[in-house]
Amino acid sequence: MDVAGVLPWVLRLLLSPQVFAPVVFPGLATALVVLLTVIWAERKIAARVQMRVGPLYVTRRLGGVLQMLADGTRYMFQEFIIPVTADRVPFLFAPILALTLAIIPFAFIPSAPGFSPIKSPYSLPAALAAISAIPLSVLLMGWASNNKFAIQGAVREAFMGLAYEAVVFISALSMGVLYGTLDLEEAVARQWLPGIVLNPVAAFTFFVGMVMSAGRLPFDIVEGEQEIVAGPFVEYSGIIFGIGMGLAYLKLYSLSLLYTLLFLSGWEPLVAPLYSVYPGIAGIFLFVKAYLLMLFVAFLRSVYGRYRLDQALRAGWRVFLPLSLISLLISVVVKVVGCV
Amino acid sequence: MSRQLASFKLHLRAVATGLKYLFLPNRITVYYPEEYIELPEGYRGLIRYYPDRCIQCGLCAMICPASAMKMYRTKTDRKGRPGINYQRCIFCGFCVDICPQNALETTKVHDVAYKSLEEMILPPEKFSQEPISPAVAGGARKLKPVFDEERGLRHERV
């Protein structure tokens, strides 16, 4: 292959849905920007509600929007300490595994009609499976750290993972029953009304499960800053700690993309001019909706106090699991009665 | 189940309250190093020592509940003079109250952030100097808290 032929080949590769969607939009590159801005926005929102100013001094004119970039740079140059008593290989391997698992869902999330990275009739369970495998690597982190707090945090992660992933799975399944498909692209196409109207109970339980299993403040029962320091991440320092922190947001980002696809009619209304230019960027509304949803979840931080582990588990098993089963029933009824 | 429904209503109310503050923010803090709130008369801030009035009785060091005040003795001065450790001080003002000669006085300066722990320990020589607020020295604007019927507290330029 000559040199002139390489450039179009690379461009074609980059613009193919298999690469563009998971790597550029709405995948990895966008996720990074989302991570930086959402963490900043969360701090700003919490500050507004709590009558404060929030981060300000990094790029003061823009309201401190580059604060997270500064923090990230600091993490980058911090010393990375491996404790002597830690199990070295899993200790280093677990965060990388967690990050990889957090990125995998982007391989199944379509950004526009006909623009799925992997077109599969089972893309919804596949994405959810990758997301719900993250607690396993967090468990490994806690185990490899060889630390009391880390082990406690890991056990909490296991408890919370079981309780709320079940809720998320069943509510997603009930939407699958309602649409008659487990393909995310098809699911959007079959929403003649937004899914949140068709099955509000499923939308509610999926939302709660999403917030709880993403484990962000104040539902950071796993990390439990006040009780068990940082849970599974207690022995991690430097950039790996940054990864641990970003993990919750990455998980939240992919879950809110799934939420948008299932309940908020995805990329509809489709921007037709953009679609004719390049279908990859036509899913702008999908991104906007998911981003607003993330901002709402970030806002919840300033409203709620912390839940204890037993409170969260009781709510999960006694309230939200039955509710999600009810949502499944509603879906079956709606399907059988024949509204769809 | 009725309990859960009742709590659901409370959740909604909490979210609504949060949203109210999000869209109609009611900021009560000030941009501190550029602005500062004027403290009222009699404010118990950093303590100043007047060595010429002191009779070296040591009552201040004795009364201090946090053991922040200590008498510094030298070979020539066996009775000693008080020095303060702001790592420990709780700004209760007992030392000021107990002093029979009014040799100690609270000031309106309360900028107690230091770059090193050693700076927080003031021996008698340093203790007798006027405390300086870095914010005021840096040319910060002075603000005055004003009671506001709607907002609660408001800060006005003086």
UniProtKB/TrEMBL annotation, chain A:
Keyword Transmembrane: yes
EC class of the enzyme, as a word: oxidoreductase
A GO CC term attached to the entry: membrane
UniProt keyword annotations, A-Z: Membrane, Oxidoreductase, Transmembrane, Transmembrane helix
Protein name, entry field: NADH-quinone oxidoreductase subunit NuoH
Entry's Gene Ontology molecular function annotations: NADH dehydrogenase activity
Cell compartments where the protein resides: Membrane
UniProtKB/TrEMBL annotation, chain B:
Gene3D superfamilies given in the database record: 3.30.70.3270
Keyword Lipid biosynthesis: no
Biological process annotations from GO: aerobic respiration
Keyword field contains DNA repair: no
The species this protein was found in: Infirmifilum lucidum
PROSITE patterns: 4FE4S_FER_1, 4FE4S_FER_2
Pfam families, per the entry: Fer4_7
Signal sequence region: none
The organism's place on the tree of life at top rank: Archaea
UniProtKB keywords: 4Fe-4S, Iron, Iron-sulfur, Metal-binding, Repeat
Protein name: NADH-quinone oxidoreductase subunit I
GO molecular function, one term: NADH dehydrogenase activity
The 4Fe-4S ferredoxin-type domain, residue ranges: 45-74, 80-109
One term under GO cellular component: membrane
